[in-house]
């Protein structure tokens, strides 16, 4: 839901996401497969004014995601490369005019995902001078090696928002 107050130059977005899905991985050394059923609920709120925006939320449920540490040198074989938790925080911060040019930080906006790169993002964006909330962002994941992303926000009638994301990492298959 969006509450747009143009006379005060502020927008409040709030809502609840519900998600269901499967998480699976295969350990390459012995082909052991781990599979988990994921479910959760994500209440959130975002508050935006002309030059600054902030937001908070919580992911609650049976959550799992990749730890992103497959390149770390260890003396032993790890037992798993995912993290499981019933609660995960969500955070958003923007500085600059979303209509023209801004920088932002996102923690767990596209969560749960198998890639930690989508859980932790920082970038720059533009709204192309439009007032409808549409924007395009480019940035980096600060947990992935050479992780870069492109993301868009495509609002439809203040009720539905499409947010396609493409992430490219420097990881190579081994």
What do these coordinates show?
- Strands 1, 2, 3, 4, 5, 6, 7, 8, 9, 10 and 11 form an 11-stranded antiparallel β-sheet that branches.
- The protein starts with a strand and ends in a 6-residue tail after the last strand.
- A hairpin with a 2-residue loop joins strand 3 and strand 4 (52-66).
- The mean pLDDT is 80.
- The chain has one domain.
- The chain is mainly β.
- The radius of gyration is 18 Å and the shape is globular.
- It has one helix at residues 116-119; strands spanning 2-5, 10-26, 33-49, 52-66, 82-97, 101-107, 120-126, 135-141, 148-156, 160-162, 165-168.
- Helix content is 2%, strand content 61%.
Taken as a percent bin, the fraction of beta residues is: over 45%
SSE succession: EEEEEEHEEEEE
Weakly predicted, low-confidence segments: none
Give the distance, in angstroms, between the N- and C-terminal Cα atoms: 44 Å
Roughly what percent helix?
under 10%
């Amino acid at each position: 839901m969006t509450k747009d107050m143009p006379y005060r130059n502020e927008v409040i977005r709030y809502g609840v996401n519900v998600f269901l899905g499967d998480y699976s991985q295969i350990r390459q050394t012995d082909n052991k497969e781990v599979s988990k059923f994921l479910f959760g609920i994500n209440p959130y709120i975002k508050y935006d004014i002309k030059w600054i925006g902030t937001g908070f939320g919580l992911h609650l449920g049976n959550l799992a995601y990749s730890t992103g540490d497959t390149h770390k040198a260890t003396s032993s074989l790890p037992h798993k490369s995912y993290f499981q938790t019933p609660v995960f925080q969500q955070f958003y911060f923007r500085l600059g005019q979303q209509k023209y040019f801004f920088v932002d930080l996102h923690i767990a906006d596209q969560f749960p995902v198998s890639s930690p790169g989508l859980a932790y993002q920082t970038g720059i964006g533009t709204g192309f001078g439009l007032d409808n909330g549409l924007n395009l962002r480019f940035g980096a994941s600060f947990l992935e090696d050479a992780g870069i992303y492109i993301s868009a926000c495509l609002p439809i009638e203040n009720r539905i928002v499409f947010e396609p994301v493409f992430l490219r990492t420097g990881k190579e298959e081994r």
